[in-house]
User: Fold this.
Amino acid sequence: MRRQAYEYFATFLKFLRSHSTLDLMTSSKSSVSNDLDVLKMYGFRGEWFDRLVLRLNHHSSLDISDKEMQNLTQDEDDYYRRIVALDEEYAALTRKLYENRSKHLAEREAVEYVSNKKNKIMDERARLNVPFII
Assistant:
């Protein structure tokens, strides 16, 4: 029984070494899962076995169909296009903001100039609005 268990284990190790990790976790997943169950029935236990099982069975993100992958790629492209458009809009709005800020500062300076001129005229009039003394 032990000999059969170790022969099965050796065959399983050869199988693991002859396939890529991605292949083991996708197209060969059911075979790998069955082999792990058989090894468990043969009595293989321990931390190393638990890590092996976890490593080979714990990748649910790989259980995605080609259609779902295409959808993700399409979503990525759509978001990228939106980001590019928003970046362009952001740049245009930033330019407009700087233009408006410059106009705003120019208008404030103009108001201050007119206000100072008006106050100066009002002060001169106030000084002249006294009785004429000879």
Notes: The helical segments are 2-17, 21-25, 29-41, 47-57, 66-128. The mean pLDDT is 89. The longest helix spans residues 66-128. The chain is about 80% helix and 0% strand.
